[in-house]
Amino acid sequence: MTSEQQAAQSASAPTIFVLYGASGDLSRRLVMPSFFELARLGRLPQQWRLVGSGRGEMSHEEFRGHVRAALEEFGPQPSEGPWDDFAAHLLFAGGGFDDADPGRLPDVLAQAREELDGDARLVHYLAVPPGAFLSMTKGFECHGLVEGATVVYEKPYGTSLESFEELDAQVQRVFDESQVFRIDHFLAFEAMQDVIHARFANPWLAAVWNREHVAQVQIDIAETLDVAQRASFYDATGAFLDMIVTHLFQMAATVAMEPPADLGPGSLQAARDAALQDFRELDPDEVVLGQFEGYLDIDGVPADSRTDTLAAARLWIDNDRWRGVPFLLRSGKRMSADEQRITLVLRDVADGPYAGAGVQPATISFSLLEGGAVDVAMTVRRPGVEGGLAQGTASLPLGELDGATPAPPYAHLIEHVLTGDRSLFTGVEGLRAAWTCIERFSAQRPQVQPYAPGSWGPQAADALAEPGQWFLR
Ligand SMILES: NC(=O)c1ccc[n+]([C@@H]2O[C@H](COP(=O)([O-])OP(=O)(O)OC[C@H]3O[C@@H](n4cnc5c(N)ncnc54)[C@H](OP(=O)(O)O)[C@@H]3O)[C@@H](O)[C@H]2O)c1
What we know:
Elements: H1 3-12, E1 15-20, H2 25-40, E2 48-53, H3 60-74, H4 83-87, E3 90-93, H5 105-115, E4 121-126, H6 133-142, E5 150-153, H7 161-174, E6 180-182, H8 190-201, H9 203-208, E7 214-222, H10 231-256, H11 265-277, E8 287-292, E9 310-315, E10 327-332, E11 339-346, E12 363-367, E13 373-381, E14 389-397, H12 409-419, H13 428-437, H14 439-443, E15 448-451, H15 459-463
Parallel strand pairs: 1-2, 1-4, 2-3, 4-5, 5-6, 7-10, 8-15
Antiparallel strand pairs: 7-11, 8-9, 9-10, 11-12, 12-13, 13-14
Helix pairs in contact: 2-3, 2-12, 6-7, 7-13, 10-11, 10-13, 11-13
The structure holds NADP nicotinamide-adenine-dinucleotide phosphate.
NADP nicotinamide-adenine-dinucleotide phosphate binds at residues 21, 23-27, 54-56, 127-132, 154-156, 185, 233.
């Protein structure tokens, strides 16, 4: 059987999807809407059930109301899809789930299995805080829910090298690696996928994708919002752990990867992991942590908190393609703009009549927002008898391409889990390399510096880009 046939077969098998943490923020805001989106697109298996799991109690009917309320708040609206049919597929299992007690899950799974024809396969989706991953993983083993199942871990998979190793040892003991999917949802944004596809589909782009032509790579995930809704979670985590070592490292590795042998799921994951293994250990002197003024006044934030609400880092990748090219990573709250952008800043003109003339460097930039966009900025002659040079930007909004139907990251991720495609998921060797890369930083965290709300962070973060400057400033 070819891998395409295998994928089609597993996508069409009766499936029971168990969503642990179904009452939580992630489930309501991102997972449930994407499930409904896939139902609207007819991309779910013919026979399926979604079992919400949680420590509280809810009837199946109350859970359907909970999912409906999530769709009404975050879309797509129930009226925009097959709501009644969708709702009939939803069940709830209360009483929690861990190694000590499976709660109501075994009974509800038995009910779901009875409702479906044949052997249903199980997908466990852990949308719970990472502190619950270990006991749930043990629970799958204790309660006989491992064989033939797929398990999906949210990020972060570990919170340090030590906790990563402890979790992964448990996961590898219980599951075969082929059963395990580890999410980093930034890999599934439309424009993020185009960092790979546009690069390898356009030889001119692939030709400049190296140290000879690229002066800097910049990755910015900036938010104007503060942390009001999730203050206690945020204060225990901070921008560096929440964003840099997870999302921005994976994005940097996607930019940095060597051409994979093919676009198959294993090849892409392996290429990204290999790039992560070339990351040089982060130097604490090349990391800036910031805290916006007013953060300590937010309800739920301790008065003496030293948590970073912004982190910026200069990362180096020790291989032939990228040696000497800084990868500048920055993410924070209460910043000047809402942006999610990867920018390759190309080198200054080195020879010819414009050498040394101070021509602004060209940039190739991928925006992840909305349906995604690719922006190419270059210098041209300013039209008119006076002449001179000007820089202009050609923008390609991906969502406006013929036939484009941009989907949210979680719709891509769930569909990939159902078809067994690992290309958008993090690999275990890459995650180990990421946690290893921040060991020295974790032992010698720099002081947190204040910054003005609505700015791009402390001045020291700007200085990381010198002698260049941040594309977003
Ligand atoms: N929210 C986001 O935007 C986002 C983005 C990317 C990744 N993630 C990741 O997704 C996961 C869930 O995030 P979230 O924001 O949805 O978290 P959350 O709202 O704090 O928790 C999700 C649910 O998990 C259950 N839960 C909480 N503590 C638990 C425990 N100790 N043991 C078992 N269940 C527990 C709770 O449901 P019950 O009380 O009903 O049991 C809770 O509603 C986390 O790993 C997070 O890092 C979240």
